[in-house]
Amino acid sequence: MRIDHHLRVFVAAGRYDSLNMCEGNLRMAAKLEDDLSRRFSNHCYEGGHMMYRDQPTRLQLSEDIGSFITESAADGDK
Where does the chain have alpha helices with state H? Predict the structure, then answer.
């Protein structure tokens, strides 16, 4: 990320995931330098490790990924 300043990261976690903590992801990103931290897009979804199994969560995840791609592509054009 220090080499490619256009690189963005999408992080998805389930609120009840025992392997990936929503709050922990936010704390980790906050410890990074501002330039790196702001390029992380952290999202927390209701559910566990496979939060995408529930249709409402899957639809929200899909929408969030689509927005992330659109916004990242627009930032890369700047």
Answer: 22-31, 34-37, 55-76
pLDDT tens digits, one per residue of 42-73: 999 999 989 889 999 999 999 999 999 999 99
CA separation for the pair 10, 33 (Å, rounded)? 17
Other C-beta atoms closer than 10 Å to the C-beta of 53 total 11
Q: Which residue, among 57, 59, 51, has the nearest Cα to 16 in the 3D structure?
A: 51
Query: Measured in Å, how far apart are the chain's first and last C-alpha atoms?
Result: 17
pTM: 0.85
Token pair of 24 as six digits: 């922990």
42: its two tokens: 């952290």
Residue 69 three-state SS? helix
